[in-house]
Amino acid sequence: MVLAALYGSSLSRANTEESSLDTLTKTTIPYKDQERKCSSFPPPLKDIRFTMATYITLTQLLGFAGIFFVATIWWAFILWPITGFGITGGAHRLWAHRSYKASFAYRFVVMLVNSCANQGTIFHWARDHRTHHFHSETVADPHDAIRGFWFAHMGWLYLKKDPR
Fold this sequence. Notes:
Order of helices and strands: HHHHHH
Number of helices: 6
Subcellular location: Membrane
Largest sheet: none
Membrane topology: Multi-pass membrane protein
Helix content: 40-55%
Mean pLDDT: 79
InterPro entries: Acyl-CoA_DS
Family: Belongs to the fatty acid desaturase type 1 family.
Structural class: mainly alpha
Organism: Emiliania huxleyi (Coccolithophore)
């Protein structure tokens, strides 16, 4: 049931619009005609990242247990904007888009607060985000929104990356 919500409910390829121009081959391929690695629901067991699914589940359970402690709630509200800046100012703008240059000290601090955000390494974050922009709304998009809201936001974390 959880996988159904995370994997996305819009797996049918019938009512989808044509994708944008494929930047690798410069040919237009309608989204509905693009081959999906995982076109059935539920996905094959070989495509599920069970280690990541266990990790995300345990993190959520520990977070839920923390709501009973006032110190944990305060700590969460302090870390929320700090780690948010590590993601938006660091992994997103500095490393993924290379939109500004920064000193080594600044990059080091932003790397640390991004690490506290628990979203993986800056290298993987930037790689996945660049891939997302390069292949936006195609099957090669790691956060393919046409596969559904939950897949675009979390479901992709549960599946192995398509090597294509």
